[in-house]
Amino acid sequence: MSKKTRKKSSKSSPTAGSGKTKSSERVATRAAASSAAGKSGRKTTAKRGATKAAATKRTSAASTSKRAGAKTASAIKPAASATKGKPATAPVRMVGTLTEGKPAPAFSLPRDGGQLVSLATYAGRKLVIFFYPRADTPGCTLEAVAFSRLADAFAAAQTAVLGVSADPVTAQEAFRDKHELTVPLVSDETLGMLKAYGVWGEKSMYGKTFMGIIRTTVLLDASGKVAKVWRNVRVDGHADEVLAAARVA
C-alpha cells in the first residue's frame, strides 16, 4: 500500500468509528424508548385492568344488592297483599251480650209511620223484640207475618211486639204495606241498639264471612228486665214458642 493510500485510510477511519458509535447510540435510544413505552403500556394496561376490575366489582355489588332488595321486597309483598282490603283488627263476633234477669239496654228509634219508640214507651208491659236481618227477604217475611198473625194473642198476654232491623224507615214501610204487617217495624241504621243487644256480629254464608244481624228474639218482663233470649232463630214455629213464653213470664 502506498503512503498516500495509508494516509487516506488513516484519515477516514475515525469517521467510520464515529458512524458506528452514533449507530449504537441510536439503537440504545430506541431500545430505551421501547423499554419506556413498554413500561408505560404495561402500567396503562395494569391501570385499565384495575379500573375494569373495580367497575366489575361495583357492578357485581350493585347487582347483588338489587337481587337482595328484590328478594326482600318479594318477602314483604305477600304479607302486604295478605292484609290488603282487610280491617286492622279482627271483626268482633258479638258486640254486646244480654243476661237474663238484667235490665235491657235503653233505646229510642224511629219506626214505620215516622213515630219514635223507646224502651220507656213500653214501661209496665212485657215486650217482645225480634231482630231480623233484612226487610222483605224470605225468612224475615215469614217471621214478621207469623208475629203479625199472633198480634192479638200477644196483646191478650199483655205483651207488645217490635220488629227491628237496620233497614231505613222507607224500606220498613214498604215491607209493612206489601205483606200487611201489623207489628211496628223499627229502623236502626246507626246499629246502636243492634250492638247493645248483641245481635250485630260476624256471620258466614257460602264460605264468606261478613258483619250483619244475627236473627235473635228477646223477651222483656214488665220491669224491663231480660226474661229470655233466643239466638240464631229458626223461623218455623218460632213466634208460637215466644208467645208461650210470654204467657208465663
Beta-strand residue percentage? 15-25%
Mean pLDDT: 77
Query: How large is the count of helical segments?
Result: 6
User: How would a crystallographer describe the biggest sheet?
Assistant: 5 strands, mixed
Helix content: 40-55%
Overall strand count: 9
Label the structural class: alpha/beta
Explain what the structure shows.
It is built from six helices and nine strands; from the N terminus they run αβββααβαβαββββα. It has 249 residues and is α/β, with parallel strands linked by helices. The chain starts with a helix and ends with a helix. Strands 5-4-3-8-9 form a five-stranded mixed sheet.
Features:
about 250 residues; alpha/beta; 6 helices; 9 strands; about 50% helix; globular
Map the helices and strands.
Layout lengths: L2 H81 L24 E3 L5 E3 L7 E6 L6 H12 L1 H6 L2 E7 L3 H11 L5 E3 L4 H5 L3 E6 L2 E6 L2 E5 L5 E6 L6 H11 L1
Parallel strand pairs: 3-4, 4-5
Antiparallel strand pairs: 1-2, 3-8, 6-7, 8-9
In summary, what is this structure?
By secondary structure, the chain is α/β, with parallel strands linked by helices. It is built from six helices and nine strands. The strands form three sheets. Strands 5-4-3-8-9 form a five-stranded mixed sheet. Strands 1-2 form a two-stranded antiparallel sheet.
